[in-house]
Amino acid sequence: MKKLCLMMVFFAFFGFLAFGDTGGQEEIGYLLFFPNSSNSFVNHAQAMTQLDNIAKNLMERNLLAGQINVFGYTAIAANYIKPMDLSRDRAVFVMNELQRRGVPGELFSEPVCQGEVALWGDNTTEASKSPNRRVRVLLDNNILPPAAPVVPPVIAPVIESAATVATATPATAADKSRSGFPWKILLPLIGLIILAAIIFFLLKCRKSSTCCKAAVETPPSSAPTPITPAPSAELAAASGAGVQSAVLAAAAVATGAVATGTVDNANDAVSIKNSKHIALENGILAIISSVPFGAYFDVHTVVQILLQQYDDVYLTNIGNYKSAAQYHSKISSIIGHHTDLVEVAGNSYSKNIHDKFSECHLFRRKR
Fold first, then answer.
1. How many whole angstroms separate alpha carbon 154 and alpha carbon 158?
2. How distant, in Å, are the alpha carbons of 57, 233, 250, 343 from that of 289?
């Protein structure tokens, strides 16, 4: 459900970008530069032709002051040149070239230095870096012409004063210059995001309440009924009868061990058998039973197999301990309780779940 909510948020965001009025900018063209250069084009002849066509296009339009935006960019490169300075110099160079071709300087806004952002491609090879050494020329179509002066009606008996007209004109101009922000699109998208968040919160609360109710209603487990261990239990696990057979056989062996008093601490064994640890106990017993007779294994090995084959059991129980080290110590204690299956063989130095070497208990599977 969490993934579904995140997908809804992403769809809403990209829908706003795709269908919303994001500024009304019109791209006129772009030019590519040589690496680390702010005044040399990749193809000089082609760039000169592009500049001529861009200048002609701009001068044929009825543009307003500050309507032409020039953006400079750079590729990602490890050198002494600052990307922001290089991108600004490239933008200024293109602005000067366009003004030399007759485009009035007041039509340009301040050059925009983008640096190493909005990259095209993966920027790992020279071919993918070249498009990022660019300058883009865009028009801001949201800039509107100034409002026409307010002319009093000819037939009006009283002509409005100049002060009244001067006061009314800025308000009218402000109303006309407002950009059409897409509230009709943005508000439903915001509502969709809020709805997804509410649904996720309610489902999370419902899941938490269900878990609490199950924990309250689950009666405490009673002491296990003594069962004589079947002589073929370990043989079934060792012959590859499957995880389910191994779990059942290991549970029978463990129950017999508790009943016959082979566990060192009977109270601790009963605690392990409660609803909180029974799944973990069964998983560990299945792993022990799958170890070949006479083979050595350590706690790190058991933890790795738990993560691979019983990850739900491992992750469910880890919340009951303050740290992973304390949790793994408990797993070591569970293994050591089953003296009828294993014997302590000292300590082992091997990789843990953090891919670092550390010391832990070493065990040997009894024959």
1. 9
2. 81, 9, 7, 13
3-state DSSP assignment of residue 138? strand
Going by the DSSP 8-state scheme, the letter that residue 107 receives in this structure is: G
As beta bridge partners, residue 73 has: 115
Helices assigned H by DSSP within 20-139: 44-59, 83-100, 126-129
pLDDT on residue 360: 94
Q: Are 338 and 297 contacting, i.e. CB atoms less than 8 angstroms apart?
A: no
What pLDDT is recorded for position 245? Answer: 47
Residue 327: partners with Cβ closer than 8 Å, 6 or more residues away: 317, 318, 320, 321
Residue 115: per-residue pLDDT? 87
Two tokens, residue 217: 């209603």
pTM above 0.90, yes or no: no
Among 27, 30, 37, 33, which Cα is nearest to 130's? Answer: 33
pLDDT of residue 286: 92
Give residue 246's pLDDT: 45
Burial class (CB in 10 A: 0-12, 13-18, 19+), 105: exposed
Q: So what's the pLDDT on residue 188?
A: 83
Q: What is the 3-state secondary structure (H, E, C) of 215-252?
A: HHHCCCCCCCCCCCCCCCHHHHHHCCCCHHHHHHHHHH
pLDDT at 44: 93
Are 5 and 103 contacting, i.e. CB atoms less than 8 angstroms apart?
no
Q: What are the residues whose beta carbons fall under 8 Å from the beta carbon of 16, sequence distance 6 or more?
A: 182, 185, 186, 189
Cβ of 228: how many Cβ atoms within 10 Å?
A: 10
Task: Please give the pLDDT value at position 1.
Answer: 54
DSSP state of 130: G
Residue numbers of the chain with a pLDDT score lower than 70: 1-23, 144-184, 207-276
